[in-house]
Write a structure and sequence with these properties.
By secondary structure, the chain is mainly beta. The protein has one domain (5-119): Thrombin, subunit H (Beta Barrel). Helix content is 12%, strand content 50%. It has helices spanning 5-15, 59-62; strands at 20-21, 25-34, 41-50, 52-56, 72-77, 88-91, 94-106, 109-119. The radius of gyration is 16 Å and the shape is globular. Residues 16-20 have low confidence and may be disordered.
Length: 121
């Protein structure tokens, strides 16, 4: 059985009356590469296309000290990439810093990542 995350996420967000949008999502992972001969460290950005949905935080969530007005909650499907706070995510050609990553499991298998993201200035 195949899980259609985008459809499932959209249905759930609609049921919860959460403003949402979906579209091209890319996790830009910063990969650190060390040259074994010279010891030089370089950083490469690699884009990974992911399925997911973008939502706004509600007023209750914004009252928490860690959520600022304008932050986005982005839910992406597990399996393609494991995002970290060192990475960024792009939605509709806007880059967002990943501030927090929560992994949601089904048993012991990761299903989705819930990302708190803030627009980069």
């Amino acid at each position: 059985m195949s899980l259609n995350l985008q459809s499932t996420a959209t249905n759930l967000l609609n049921k919860l009356a959460i403003t949402q949008a979906s579209g091209d999502l890319k996790v830009v992972q910063v990969l650190q590469v060390k040259n074994s001969l010279t010891g030089e460290v370089t950083f490469n950005n690699t884009d990974f296309n992911v399925a997911g949905a973008v939502t706004e935080y509600n007023l209750y969530e914004q009252e928490k000290q860690t959520v600022a007005k304008g932050d986005k909650k982005i839910v992406i499907q597990a399996g393609v990439v494991v995002p970290t706070t060192q990475d960024q995510i792009k939605f509709e050609n806007v880059a967002y810093a990943i501030l927090d990553v929560q992994t949601k499991y089904s048993g012991i298998i990761p299903q989705v990542y819930v990302l708190q993201c803030r627009g980069k200035k």
